[in-house]
Specification:
By secondary structure, the protein is α/β, with parallel strands linked by helices. The chain folds into 3 domains: 225 residues, P-loop containing nucleotide triphosphate hydrolases (Rossmann fold, 3-Layer(aba) Sandwich); 172 residues, 3-Layer(aba) Sandwich (Rossmann fold); 47 residues, no CATH class. The protein is 48% helix and 12% strand. It is globular, with a radius of gyration of 30 Å.
C-alpha cells in the first residue's frame, strides 16, 4: 500500500471531473420528483420500494451537485434523508469494474450498518454490493467479504486504518469518499485518524463531507481534503419535522426518574427511546425500569458489540419497547414504529436535540418528543426553540389519577381499533354459552390491567400556577432585559478602573465574527492589557517602600 503525501494538481482533477460530468444527463435543480435527476430506472424502482415519494430538502440540493462530480460540504441533521442524498447519485455512477469505487466513513458501528443497509436497499436492482468494516468483527471474515469485490465500503475510522496500515486493501483507490457525521467523528477524537486515512487515498477523487454542525476543526479539515466544494445547508426550519409534537416538563432534579416512569405510564408508548447524557445513566435507568416491570434495554459505547446488536435487534422485533441510549450510540438508528422520544436531560446543543427527536415521526407517522428540564434550564429550552424554530409546548406532569385516566382512554381506543381475529371468534363461540358476557369482559380487562399500576408520588414537578410563571419567564420581557443589560453595563464601567483609558471604542475590528481568522479577539486586547500592567507596575514601584515600612511598623506595635 503506497501512501499519497503530495497534493495533485487541482487543474488536472477539475479536468477529470469535467470529463466525468459530461457523460451525465442534465438535471433540474428545482424539480420535485426523483425522475428529474436522470437516475437509472433500476434505481428509481429501489427508491419506490424503499418508500420515498419526493426528495427531501437535502436530497433536492445535493443529488444534482454530486451527479455533476463536484465536491460537497453539506450541513444537515440526522433524519433529513442525507444517506439517500449521497447514496443515490453514487449508486447511479457506479462503473461495476470490479474495484472498490466508493468509501463511506462513519463514526460508529451502528451508523455503518445502517448506511450499508440503506444503500443496499436503494441499489438492490442495480447489482450493488456493500461491505461494512468496523471493530468487533473477525478480521478474517471481513477479508472474505472483501474478496467478493464490493463496489462500496462503509467503515469506521479505527478498523479502516487497521486494514490500510496492514495493507489488506489491495489496489484501494475509491473515486468517491464520503465523510458522514463529521462533527461526531471530531467529538469522538477521530480527526487525526481521518487525516491519516486521506494519506492513503488518491487525490483524483470526489469528496463529500456531511456534518450536522461546522466547528472550526471541521472547516480546517474541509480546506485540506476538498477541492472547490459546493456548500449546502439545510436550515433547522427545514430539518424540523412537523409530524412530531414537542413538549417539555419542568421538574426538580431529584424527580427525573419518577417523571419518566409517570410519563411512560400515561403515554403508554408502543416504542420509546430515552436519551441520557452519560453511559452510566443509561445502564442505571434501564435497570431501574426493568426492576419495575418495563421491557427496557440499554445502548451505549461501552457495551460489547454483541450486546449492542442484541439490544438493537430486541428493540426492532419488540422484545423490548424502551431503549435507553446515549447520543453517539443511537447515531443513525432508523427503527420504524418509534412513537416517543424522551430527553432525560436537555441535549447539549440544538443540533443534538434535532437528531434525538428525529428518531420518531418517520415515514409520515406521528411522533411525540418529551424533554425534562429544571427551572434553571429555561435558557436552554429557549435556545433550542430559537435555533430550531420549533413549537415546544409546556406541560404538567400528570397526577396518578390523570395517568390512570389516560391509560384507560388509550386502552379503550386500542380495543376499539383492534381487528377481530378468527381465533378470537372461535374461542368466543366456545365460551359464550358458559359465561355471562359482562363477567367475561370484566375478567379479560382485569387480565389486561393487572400489570398497569401507576406508581410513584402523586405530585411530580411544578404545578400549573408555577408553570405559568415559568412560561412568562421563558418568553422573556425584552424591555426589562434591555434595562438589566444597561444596569449591568453601567456597573461594569464603574468597576473597571481602566475604562476609557486604554480602549478605543470607535475602533472597529476588521470582521464582526469572533471565529474569523482575520481578527483574533485575544490579540486585539493584548496591547491594552500590557499597557495597563505597565502602569500598575510603575505605580506599585513608587509606593512599595512606604507600604512595606508601614506594614513593619504595624507588626512591631502588635496591630493587625
Amino acid at each position: 500500500m503506497n501512501k499519497t503525501t503530495k497534493q495533485q494538481n487541482p487543474a488536472k482533477r477539475q479536468t477529470q471531473q469535467a470529463q466525468d460530468s459530461q457523460t451525465l444527463a442534465p438535471n433540474s435543480y428545482s424539480a420535485k420528483g426523483f425522475e428529474s435527476f436522470g437516475l437509472k430506472k433500476s434505481i428509481l424502482r429501489g427508491i419506490k420500494e424503499a418508500g420515498f415519494s419526493e426528495p427531501s430538502p437535502i436530497q433536492q440540493e445535493a443529488i444534482p451537485i454530486i451527479l455533476d462530480g463536484l465536491d460537497v460540504i453539506a450541513q444537515a441533521q440526522t433524519g433529513t434523508g442525507k444517506t439517500a442524498a449521497f447514496g443515490l447519485p453514487l449508486i447511479n455512477s457506479l462503473k461495476h469494474n470490479g474495484e472498490i469505487e466508493v468509501l463511506v466513513v462513519t463514526p460508529t458501528r451502528e451508523l455503518a450498518m445502517q448506511v450499508g443497509d440503506e444503500i443496499f436497499k436503494l441499489g438492490k436492482y442495480n447489482k450493488v454490493r456493500t461491505v461494512s468494516l468496523f471493530g468487533g468483527q473477525p478480521i478474517r471474515r471481513q477479508l472474505e467479504l472483501l474478496e467478493k469485490r464490493p463496489q462500496i465500503i462503509i467503515a469506521t475510522p479505527g478498523r479502516l486504518l487497521d486494514h490500510l496500515r496492514n495493507e489488506r486493501l489491495k489496489n484501494f483507490s475509491p473515486s468517491v469518499v464520503v465523510l458522514d457525521e463529521s462533527d461526531e467523528m471530531l467529538d469522538m477524537g477521530f480527526l487525526d485518524d481521518i487525516e491519516e486515512i486521506f494519506t492513503y487515498l488518491s487525490n483524483a477523487r470526489q469528496t463529500l463531507l456531511f456534518s450536522a454542525t461546522m466547528p472550526i476543526p471541521i472547516k480546517h479539515l474541509a480546506q485540506k481534503i476538498l477541492n472547490n466544494p459546493k456548500l449546502i445547508k439545510v436550515t433547522p426550519e427545514d430539518a424540523t419535522n412537523q409530524d412530531i409534537a414537542q413538549r417539555y416538563y419542568i421538574i426538580n432534579e431529584s424527580e427525573r426518574e419518577d417523571a419518566i416512569v409517570r410519563l411512560i405510564d400515561s403515554e403508554t408508548p408502543s416504542k420509546a427511546i430515552i436519551f441520557t447524557r452519560m453511559k452510566k445513566e443509561a445502564d442505571i435507568l434501564s435497570e431501574r425500569l426493568l426492576s419495575r416491570g418495563y421491557k427496557a434495554g440499554a445502548l451505549h459505547g461501552d457495551m460489547e458489540q454483541r450486546e449492542r446488536l442484541k439490544s438493537i435487534n430486541a428493540f426492532k422485533n419488540s422484545s423490548i419497547n424502551i431503549l435507553v441510549a446515549t447520543d453517539i450510540a443511537a447515531r443513525g438508528l432508523d427503527i420504524s414504529g418509534v412513537s416517543h422520544v424522551f430527553n432525560f436531560h436537555i441535549p447539549l446543543n440544538p443540533e443534538s436535540y434535532v437528531h434525538r427527536i428525529g428518531r420518531t415521526g418517520r415515514a409520515g407517522k406521528k411522533g411525540i418528543a418529551i424533554t425534562l428540564a429544571t427551572p434553571l434550564e429555561f435558557k436552554e429550552i429557549r435556545r433550542i426553540k430559537e435555533n430550531t424554530k420549533a413549537s415546544i409546548e409546556l406541560y404538567e406532569i400528570p397526577s396518578i389519577q390523570d395517568a390512570m385516566d389516560k391509560q384507560d382512554s388509550n386502552l379503550l381506543d386500542k380495543i376499539l381499533k383492534h381487528t377481530i381475529s378468527d381465533d378470537a371468534l372461535r374461542i368466543y363461540e366456545q365460551i359464550r354459552s358458559h359465561a355471562d358476557m359482562t363477567q367475561l369482559v370484566c375478567k379479560l380487562l382485569s387480565m389486561v390491567l393487572q400489570d398497569s399500576k401507576v406508581l410513584g408520588p402523586n405530585k411530580i414537578g411544578l404545578n400549573k400556577k408555577d408553570l405559568k410563571t415559568m412560561q412568562m419567564q421563558l418568553e422573556g420581557n425584552p424591555r426589562r432585559e434591555r434595562q438589566n443589560n444597561d444596569k449591568d453595563s453601567a456597573k461594569n464601567r464603574r468597576n473597571n478602573k481602566n475604562y476609557g483609558k486604554d480602549w478605543n471604542h470607535n475602533k472597529k475590528p476588521k470582521s464582526s465574527k469572533r471565529d474569523s481568522e482575520d481578527w483574533n479577539f485575544q490579540e486585539f486586547h493584548k496591547e491594552s492589557r500590557q499597557k495597563s500592567q505597565s502602569k500598575n507596575h510603575r505605580n506599585s514601584s513608587k509606593n512599595r517602600a512606604p507600604s512595606q515600612k508601614s506594614k513593619n511598623s504595624k507588626n512591631h506595635n502588635g496591630k493587625s
